[in-house]
Amino acid sequence: MTAIPQAEALAQAYDGITAVVDGLDDAGLQRPTRCRGWLVADLLLHVLGDAQRALVTLASPASGPADSDDVSYWRDFPADGADAAQHAWWVRRSAAAFDRPTGIVRLWTETAPAAVRAGASADPEGYVSTQGHVLRVPDFLATLTTEAVVHHLDLTPDLPDAPPPGPLAVRVAVATMDGLLSDDTVRPTAWDDHDFLLKATGRLPLTDRDRLELGESAGWFPLLG
User: Where is the Mycothiol-dependent maleylpyruvate isomerase metal-binding domain (predicted)?
Assistant: First the structure.
């Protein structure tokens, strides 16, 4: 399989989120998302934190070798993480500190392109350290893309005219979920890529038919939260 240009995929993922939120008014930014308790503005602030972390991480090279790749990195973030509720509360309070929700959009549109440029300029043979792990630069970029694509889908259930995430970015996220599954798992035939991502992350429940087709692999779901 042709290697995925990870910096290009991240650019597509972040541009996709910008396309969803840019132009929304304060009311639009207060619509619900798939993340329980979070409005669009809250979730955007959460993703903004990833872009800010990317700027710090990419400016702080680490010595190799890597101890995680773009798939194994996620095994430290189980779907039922005990800190999830605490983080969700922190994000909501932080988002509420802005005078208007559109202030978060402005900060996102300044920060996300900078993170993409930093990713494109980073040494693809280099290593970075983030959240207690050392990763190759392309693998780190892939983790950012995967999270951005999943959260892009989280942003849109109450925004029916929102554009979908770009195909290259989706390809990265799907590859991550495939990697978290056992090698002999076959995806149910009725799933498209978006279905797979939403079910793999617990956004949509498995149906009885899904469980029948997945067999024992159904017990792996959700693969991450």
Answer: 11-155
- Tokens 């849109």 found at: 156
The answer to whether residue 79 scores a pLDDT higher than 60 is no
Q: What is the pLDDT of residue 203?
A: 96
Q: Which helix (H) or strand (E) holds 62?
A: strand 61-62
Place of tokens 């983030």: 130
Residue 83 burial class via C-beta count within 10 angstroms: exposed 0-12, middle 13-18, buried 19 and up: exposed
Residues 185-225: tens digit of each pLDDT? 888 989 999 999 999 999 999 999 999 999 999 999 999 87
Q: Which residues contact 19 (CB under 8 A, 6 or more apart)?
A: 162, 163
User: Could you tell me the pLDDT band of residue 150, with boundaries at 50, 70 and 90?
Assistant: very high
The pLDDT value given to residue 1: 40
Q: Is 54 exposed, middle or buried (0-12, 13-18, 19+ CB in 10 A)?
A: buried
CA distances, 178 to each of 12, 38, 168, 197, 223 (Å):
20, 27, 15, 10, 10
Taking alpha carbons only, the member of 173, 177, 209, 172 closest to residue 190 is 209
3-state DSSP helix/strand/coil % of the chain, to nearest 5: 60, 5, 35
Q: Which domains does the chain carry?
A: 6-74+85-176 (1.20.120.450)
- Would you give the end-to-end CA distance of the chain in angstroms? 27
